[in-house]
Amino acid sequence: xxxxxxxxxxxxxxxxxxxxxxxxxxxxxxxxxxxxxxxxxxxxxxxxxxxxxxxxxxxxxxxxxxxxxxxxxxxxxxxxxxxxxxx
Length: 87
Description:
By secondary structure, the chain is of the alpha+beta class. Helix content is 39%, strand content 21%. Strands 1-2-3-4 form a four-stranded antiparallel sheet, with no helix packed on it.
């Protein structure tokens, strides 16, 4: 028995007619972000050239690894160069 997908159908029609309403859903790094449409939940991400690309499982995995690497790098940089309050 097939599941009905008519619940999401009106939202897809709205996006088809008026365009998507993307909002920032995740900031992976300062240059790489993920966006999600408020209506139909379509997801995009920025690729290596800075262009928006559909968020596939491959890009999701890349973004997860990149975000983990970036956060570890920031923690390492904070621990390596403590700023002294006294001069």
